[in-house]
Design a protein that fits this description.
two-stranded antiparallel ribbon; extended; 88 residues
Length: 88
């Protein structure tokens, strides 16, 4: 790690930024994964939160943004990972 990987956020908490060793996810991405992906993840969220809490969490604006990005990535993604699967 390099000295430039260390910082302090606006609340005074230490932050480590190393894109080779990411170990933290933003809360909005955690919630999107729990609330908007697989059935299993939804069942887990139902054990972690009350129905009222889930409703409040689902209303967060970041979740709508993540869903929009997911849709755009789905359109733009190359499922063949750059290999040629179709003949021209």
């Amino acid at each position: 790690m390099d000295r430039s990987n260390f910082a302090v956020d606006t609340t005074g908490r230490p932050v480590i930024l190393d894109f080779e060793q990411i170990g933290w996810l933003p809360k909005s991405l955690e919630l999107f994964t729990l609330l908007n992906t697989t059935g299993f993840a939804r069942v887990v969220s139902e054990h972690l939160f009350t129905p009222e809490e889930i409703a409040v969490l689902r209303a967060q604006p970041n979740l709508k943004s993540i869903a929009a990005v997911k849709g755009l990535l789905g359109i733009a993604a190359r499922p063949c990972f750059g290999t040629f699967t179709h003949r021209f």
